[in-house]
Amino acid sequence: MLKNLVLSRPLAVIDLETTGTDAQTDRIVEIGVLKIFPDGQKDVRCRRINPGIPIPESATAIHGITDSDVAGEPRFEVVALRLLKFLDGCDLCGFNLKRFDLRMLAAEFNRIGRDLPMDARSIIDPLEIYHDRERRDLSAASRFYCGRDHDGAHSASADVQATAEILDAMLERYPDLPRSVEELHDLYRDQRSVDLDGKFIRVDSRIVFNFGKYRGRRLDEVARESPDYMHWMLAGSFLDDTKEIVRGALEQTVDQLGPAV
Q: What pTM was estimated for this model as a whole?
């Protein structure tokens, strides 16, 4: 399937269908994963999920999944451990993965007291390449790079297949792009970012917030002045590497000030 991308370990191409776009309040209703191995073998898994909340008509209009479709399906916590095992040792790929799918997954894992480990993973989001080179959506990408309509749009299993094929076609079209997962990951990563999601960046050797009400403030200052905000982050749907930075800042503050008496 991948003729132009060199894999040093499995690449898991992920797509989610959900009840909406808010990671804090919305839920996953379908998970699709295409696992591509360095030897070219592939393993496709697709699983519908009972979100435990009603699926809005606006969401059904996009992906076609209704409340009755998922009434007998398992909740996320039932499939979570199998999903973690399936993704173990994989680099990750997905169309709009960084801004949407990873955040939704992080939120779902957080609600059951688990994290999606991100250490040592490389991340490729073809949407970043696409916006950098062409700036359109998945269906337009399929027409532009693969020469055909994406008839299965918003079906998780069809979307992961299309995403992998589009990524491969991009690499064929742009010979100057790197051919390894790690190099593609580095090319589209903000070099100032300290964590994968870019919540923290390094400015003049200091780690500062890159989002929210403390944007531009130094991490160590916020950890000292507003520890409640840091604990809110630890309880939220942030990615695991972001939380590790927060934990480190809190631990450093305790070491400097000493434990409360």
A: 0.70
